[in-house]
Amino acid sequence: MPSMVVLATTAVPDHLRGALSRWTTEVASGIFVGSVSARVRDELWTQVTAVVGDGQAVLIHPAPNEQGYALRTAGTRRRIPVDFDGLTLIKMTGAIQPAMAKKAQRA
To answer: Which secondary-structure segment (H or E) carries 44?
Structure first.
C-alpha cells in the first residue's frame, strides 16, 4: 500500500534529482514529496545513498512507532538522528572551521 514520503536533498547531482522526480514531485528546490510503496521507497533510497557524495539527504516516511514516522539520512551532515527511548531526536554536531582544521592537521 502506498504511503507518503518526504525526501530532502542538498547539493546532490542533477541526475539524482531527475530520478527522484520520476516518482515524486519536487515541491521546492531539493524537497521531494510523493506517495509510493515501501519497495519503491527503499529502491529510491538505495539510489540516493549510492550517489549522494558530499551532499546530504533525509528521507521521512511513516513507521509504526510513537512519532508515526522514521528518518533516514545519508551524506555529509551536521544533524544526526539519535534514538532516545524510542523517540528519534536530532543531535547537532559542530562544523569544523577551516582554520581549526588546519591546526588539527599540523598537530
So the answer is: helix 38-51
